[in-house]
Amino acid sequence: MTNALALSALADPTRREVFERLARGPLPVGELALGLPVSRPAVSQHLKILKAAGLVTDRPDGTRRVYQIDPRGLGQIRAWLDQVWDVALDAFRAEVERQAEQDQEQP
Amino acid sequence: MSQTIAPAAIRKSFTVRATPERAFEVFTAGLHRWWPKSHSIGDAPLKMATIEPRVGGRWYSLTEDGVEHEWGDVLAWEPPARLILAWRLNGAFTYDPDLLTEVEVCFAATGEGETRVDFEHRGLERFGAGEAVQAIRGGMDQGWGLILDAFQTVADA
Fold first, then answer.
1. How many domains does chain B have?
2. Domain range spanning residue B52?
3. A-B interface: how many C-beta pairs under 8 angstroms?
């Protein structure tokens, strides 16, 4: 679902350009729209779609909203942590059982 | 299209041949005996890891170069049944006091000398700021192929 939504969101060339600009750093809508061949409302619409796809996130900054890349869309940190815990919990289980065996040998 | 997509919590469940008391003790007081050396915080190998046994207690490690590294703190301390830790290490394995993700571990006796361990690491959407974003931005330089590969990997997982 994430994959399909993200890929379809990036299929549009203007949207891809919006996303690439944010990849260089957070920007408010006004600055983001400068130099793009579409209107500011159109940029806002593109941002809405990118946000729904989990690719960008926004936060208030005074009276405007600042947009930035959302690493959630990439899922890289989750995948990495998942692997860290797999390794760690395997080691935990081995250590618990090693100690439990010792408990039984020395009641 | 108004939904927001947050990463699912990491969940692991397994059974160990030990009592809940022993499992809880090894998970907390014995952390340094099982935490993978390959995932030490800091530049030197892990020497000692400590979870102070109370709510609000510190969770930190000591590396062989004598440096202390904060990991987070204790949110719930209910031996031998339940433990909740605040994991405040970001995607670069660096302590960030403003980052709050939660690690919850529950231990339940399932039979004679056996314990079911239910593990959850949640709040992963909070990684979406600060240095984590910098790391992704660095990855962007390698082009779209890499990023789309990452989407594919996540979707297939």
1. 1
2. 10-124
3. 143
How far apart are alpha carbons B140 and B133 in whole angstroms? 11
Going by C-alpha positions, the residue among B36, B10, B13, B1 that lies closest to residue B157 is B10
**pLDDT tens track for B15-52:** 999 999 999 999 999 998 998 876 777 778 888 899 99
Examine residue B149 and state whether it is found in any structural domain, yes or no: no
Q: Do residues B75 and B55 touch, judged by C-beta distance below 8 A?
A: yes
- We report the CATH number of the domain holding residue B42 as 3.30.530.20
Could you say which of A68, A88, A100 has the minimum Cβ distance to residue B22? A100
A91 phi and psi angles, rounded to 5 deg: -65, -35
For B150, the 3-state DSSP assignment is helix
Verify whether the Cβ–Cβ distance A74 to B1 is below 8 Å: no
Mind telling me how many Å the CA of A81 is from chain B's nearest CA? 8
Q: Does the beta-carbon distance from B36 to A91 stay under 8 Å?
A: yes
Contact A100 B19 (CB under 8 A): yes
- Poorest-confidence range of A42-51, A66-75, B102-111? A66-75
The domain spans of chain A are: 2-73, 75-107
User: What is the second-level CATH architecture of the domain A2-73?
Assistant: Orthogonal Bundle (1.10)
CB-closest option in B3, B36, B136 to A52: B3
Q: Is residue B20 part of a domain?
A: yes
CA distance linking residue B47 with residue A66, whole number of Å: 43
Mean pLDDT, residues B85-110 taken together: 88
Q: What pLDDT does B131 receive? A: 44
